[in-house]
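B., you asked whether I could sanity-check this one before it goes into the benchmark set. Here's the sequence:
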Amino acid sequence: MKLDKATVANRYGEAIFEIADEQGNIVAFSEELEEVRQVFLANPQLSEVLVDARLNLLEKQDLVKVLLKDASPIIANVIQMVFDYGRMGDMVGIIEEFERLCDVKEKVVHATVTTAIELDDSQLTKLSSKFAERIGANKIVFNNIIDEKIIGGVIIEANNQIFDGSISSKINKVKRLLAE
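And here's what the prediction gave me:
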């Protein structure tokens, strides 16, 4: 039975994370895997080439050797194993799953904050600190979106939850109450 991309990413990402955690080397693994991810993102056809059955295995191995050149032994083994099992098309997903697990361990939350105006660094820092305290996170990484339709306030989306403190939603709530 062939596994889907999400299952492959979960299994490999979790295995790499467990090794990194056992060795107390999460940061080093993360940095090295991010370099590999950047290679794949900068060369979108690379994963396609490495799984293309029409291409010569030796040519593919030469490409993989470039990835292995500066890799630590464990990351080199991971890359080689992913290649050997024909999963190079899943490499970015594997790395993203590893990073997700790192974030869970470190209580880092990625969130989207929507505001009517652009927030400066001090406002984002203050908002990040208050929101982290509220949800029990160590760190919040915000993706800031500007939407003038919310009039004012903020909407924060994190961990499949929405915290809506926008003026527009408050106005709509008052309208609904008046309509009743």
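One thing to flag: The first helix runs from residue 5 to 23. Otherwise nothing jumped out at me.
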